[in-house]
Amino acid sequence: MRLNVQVTPKKAIKFTKLTVFLTCAWPPRKRLFLFKVFMCFSVFLSIALLLPLIVSIIQHSDNFFIIIKSVIFICGIVNYVAKVITVRIYHEELQELGTIVDQFVDKANDQEKIVMQKLIDKCWKFQFFMTCSYYLTTTAMLIGPLVLTQKFPTDAIYPFSVDNLVVSRIVYLHQCFVGYQCSAGMALDCQAALFIWFLSGKFELLGAESKSVVNHDQLCHFVEKHQDLLIFADKLILSTRIMALSTVSVTKIGMIFGGIVLISNEPLAVKVQFGIMVMSTTANIYVCTWAADYLITVSSSTLSEEIFGSSWKHEPKVRKMWSIVLLRSQKPVIINIPGLLNNLSNEYYAAFLSAAFSAFATIRVAVNS
Fold it and tell me: Has the keyword Iron been applied to this entry (predicted)?
């Protein structure tokens, strides 16, 4: 029997806010001081594990497996810290974007609700699966001490004894908390993707609205809406491209080092842990890539086709204005960092996978030889 679950835009927003809570991406309207204290404390806790992991690499320089594990955990922590810093730097822009999305969802008319629901139906299953995979991957790592001989989930080395029962439990809980911080850092990509899907929906609505423009005043109003969307896109791109760069960089390292574990002679339980991590990180980049690729289409070719189909029936003065809008719509909204991050799109993801698997195959040959 097929389970029919209706996920509305409001439910999707609430779920996303919950899963990224540890990144402090949604500041409350009250008690901002306590919120900032919690943010600083969270970053401190993550760095408190980062340093012992670096020490473990130095101390176990002759143990390649421990080095791989520590590097992967370090990547997760660096990704979390980088995204929290990004959230802090662009907190005003993100708060404004969040407010716009909340207000739009609350006041949407029937047509707007239909378009937004269509996009939520399109993406929620994948994003829900990815969010669950982030936290399940962390959980699989954290329960390692229950089925393996290791004492803690990581091989971190502390400047004090961890043989005491109380200290041992505190260290274990600390590593668990930081692990879920890393999961929240990955889940932040789902929030960015949610904003991108929202922007895509607004472009779809704008394209449909072009059919109802009949005079100069309505066209001016249409142009204003188009400019507002482009401003929204600029603010969204500022933070999203940095998050995407962090995710791509960490994912590349995680995939390569995780793949080495899979072809090693480690126990099956260890391979299962890292196998889940490799699959999760491989699919993680596609969260934002899928949304960004769709945005490229609706902000350019789809919008241009709608405008071109409506502009021919107007008077010459209005058609001239339409041609200016049409020219601007030829430039799609893209997410990239020149020289560091190519345009997020399906083509980019395919090239990324090809390069990652080529690197993995090269490493496998080197290890076997």
Answer: no
